[in-house]
Amino acid sequence: MSDTIRIAAVTMARNDSFFLSRWIRYYGRELGYDHLYVYLDGEDQEIPVGTPEEVHITKLPHRSLSRSAGDKYRIGLLTRLAHHLLDEGYDLILGTDSDEFVVPDPRTGLSLREYLSEHRPESHASALGLDLGQRLDEEAPLDPDRSLLEQRRYAVLTARYTKSCILTRPLDWGSGFHRVRGHNLHILPDLYLIHAGYCDLEMVKARQGERGVDWGNHLSRRARTIHFTSTRTPIDADRILRRARRLQRLFRPLFAWNKPLMPGRKRVVRLPERFRSIDI
Length: 280
Hints:
Order of helices and strands: EHEEHEEHEHEEEHHHEHE
Distance between the termini: 23 Å
């Protein structure tokens, strides 16, 4: 372990204790709680129960901004924090939203720290995106006391969550970590960004404040990830993940050359059984 590197993880959250507590637990276990840096968007925000005191938490005044302006404001804060941490001696900064978990494939046999130490990029890198959903005819509402991947097996394979979440030089993230400004895309092998924000219909309803809505008629519009994972025939992930990584490197949006693009219709994958061992 002497050749491992110093890694910090950064995020910003608001009204998201469920996922933030899991974010802290996962990255704290993988990287060390004293290497986690969390901005809370609002001085009224509560620190999740059980958060170790080593975690660096800063409450900031909430600013009422449009979605686009808010995204730019938040990524600006996190980019400046990443630059500061690199100046302070960290070798690598991992930046994600609080409902996103960067995980190495269990078949590598490596922890997150070990994986990033072995695959440290020269400047920045991305993890292949998996948007975790819920297959309504198979999967019950989440049990908060169990790992997400013990309860969810289906995900949408989407370039939207193939994010440039890793920095080793003081470069500038684009909004939502979707790209690094002025730099090309580099997707690491056997590394995944699992977005969990839409993996439970009851939580989506609660977040949107629409428990009384006829969700049978609105699922495709209001919970698209769950609509896809519930209605489309899944592909075994091991059959397509390597090809997906290659396709996303090759195809780019016309006016965003440094973002990935996944051609064709949305594909739903069934995660391998080994992913159940990942505790997020």
